[in-house]
Structure formats: C-alpha cells, structure tokens
Amino acid sequence: MIWEVFRQEDAGDSHTHVGNVHAPDREMALLFAQVQHARRKPTNSLWVASQEEIGEMGAEESAFGGTTNKSYRWAMTYNYEPTAEEVAESESEQAEADRARSGD
After folding, report:
1. What topology is assigned to 2-53 in CATH?
2. pLDDT of 24-78, one tens digit each?
3. Where does the sequence pass through the membrane (predicted)?
4. Rounded CA gap, 37 and 103, in Å?
C-alpha cells in the first residue's frame, strides 16, 4: 500500500507533501516516513495518509470561487481622500493579487 507523507518543520507551520512510502499498515508507514523524511531535517510532526483516501479536484472544478465579481469587497474599489497608508498598502496588495489571478 502507498502512503503519502506530509511534514511540518516547526509548530504552527503548514504540513507540506514530501513524498510517499510503501508500507503494509499505518504504523509501518509512520516508521518509514520518520526514517526517510524526518531524519535529516528538523521535523515537528509527520502525517501519513493512504493514497486511496486522497481525493483530487481538477482546475475547472476548483475555479468555483473565481466565477463571480466580488471586487466590491476590496479596498481598491472605494476611493476616499486622503488615502491612509494602510489602505494604500492594501490596494497595492489586492491589485497584485488580481493581476496574479488573471494571469497578467
């Protein structure tokens, strides 16, 4: 059975996928994951998940959130004078995020 391994370097960090191991059960998978993925790097925790239990969603199915215009939620749609420093920073961050989403 194939087990996918997720590693967390420091407490509070996100777990990231680091590879997989072949093992007959969860306990052996954890042991193999510890040897292969945690022995040389600082590791706070490891997760193993059966490959059969991991679902996948394609790009078209996951695009649900980007189908409607919600620009009214962004500070850049409101033009108040004078612009506070925090608002200017927020506008530039949101404009950059918008460009990244649209692929420009």
Report:
1. Ubiquitin-like (UB roll) (3.10.20)
2. 999 999 999 999 999 888 899 999 999 999 888 877 776 666 566 776 777 665 5
3. none
4. 35
